[in-house]
Design goal:
Shape: globular
Pfam families: DUF218
Largest sheet: 5 strands, parallel
Order of helices and strands: HHHHEHHEHEHEHEH
Protein name: YdcF family protein
Number of domains: 2
Strand order of the largest sheet: 3-2-1-4-5
CATH superfamily of the largest domain: HUPs
CATH architecture of the largest domain: 3-Layer(aba) Sandwich
CATH topology of the largest domain: Rossmann fold
Structural class: alpha/beta
Keywords: Membrane, Transmembrane, Transmembrane helix
Helix content: 40-55%
Number of helices: 10
Number of strands: 5
GO cellular component, one term: plasma membrane
Distance between the termini: 31 Å
Organism: Methylocystis heyeri
Length: about 260
């Protein structure tokens, strides 16, 4: 039930969707006896859409998330294992075309290639089933297996967890699959924006991990914000960052993370 509710809420509450719904409502109201209110709502919604598309809203929402957990030092001790979270595969396109289609989070899958060159003895684990509300005939784990085998990463020794639908299930199912031992060092690879919520969830699940953030969308510096004049990029960052902030609150309120805003 949590998964279904979260997916529905994510659809209706994302900033770009909210602004579009409000704009549509304003237009409809403009043709009723509430025309004045409708025009005001339409104008406010249009301004919000412009701010999302061309303003710094997304940057200021995303920067504190991405700056929360720094990258580990280059000379860190070799890890015993590497856990890679799903979210980098376009399930619909992959299933339709029968080949791997990656999205803007592709670095989640390319970073482990370099990590295994540095730490060849580390166990590599991918966790990700289908995040689609109605399910999918082509899971992320299937797609990633194809991708990593084509790049030579998977020599038959990679572990795949293919049942999880969200980050909470990533943590619990992976913990039960690999059964990490006390004192082992495990890296967690996911997008920098997603790292605070992921770390809180893995800690709550009793699976200590070391953050290895990738897929940065900001420079984390409030004094030097940069704006994207590619509308789809700006809207994507805003929606993704808002999703993470709402997710932090929801997961904390439902006891799935160890802190409202997990810290190093």
């Amino acid at each position: 039930m949590f998964f279904v509710i979260s997916k529905l809420f994510e659809f209706f509450a994302s900033p770009s969707h909210f602004a579009l719904f409000a704009l549509a409502a304003g237009v409809v109201l403009s043709y009723t006896r509430h025309a004045t209110a409708g025009r005001r709502l339409t104008a406010a919604s249009a301004v919000l859409l412009l701010a999302i598309a061309f303003g710094p809203i997304g940057y200021f929402l995303a920067a504190p998330l991405e700056a929360r957990f720094p990258e580990p030092p280059e000379d860190m001790p070799a890890p015993d294992g590497i856990v890679v979270l799903g979210g980098a595969v376009d399930e619909a396109q992959s299933g339709e075309k029968g080949r791997v289609a990656l999205n803007e989070a592709a670095e989640r899958l390319t970073a482990p290639i370099e990590l295994l060159r540095r730490y060849p003895h580390a166990r590599l684990v991918f966790t990700g089933g289908s995040a689609a509300l109605t399910g999918s005939r082509f899971t992320e784990a299937q797609a990633v297996r194809l991708f990593w085998r084509s790049t030579g990463v998977d020599q038959g020794d990679v572990v795949y967890e293919d049942r999880s639908r969200n980050t909470f299930e990533n943590a619990v199912f992976t913990r039960d699959l690999v059964r990490p031992k006390a004192g082992e060092r495990w890296l967690l690879v996911t997008s920098a924006m997603h790292m605070p919520r992921s770390m809180g969830i893995f800690r709550k699940a009793g699976f200590p991990v070391i953050p290895y953030p990738v897929d940065y969308r900001t420079n984390g510096d409030y004094s030097r914000p940069y704006l994207s004049f590619v509308t789809q990029n700006a809207v994507g960052v805003t929606d993704s960052a808002a999703h993470e902030w709402v997710g932090l609150v929801a997961y904390y309120m439902t006891g799935k993370t160890d802190a409202l805003f997990p810290a190093p």
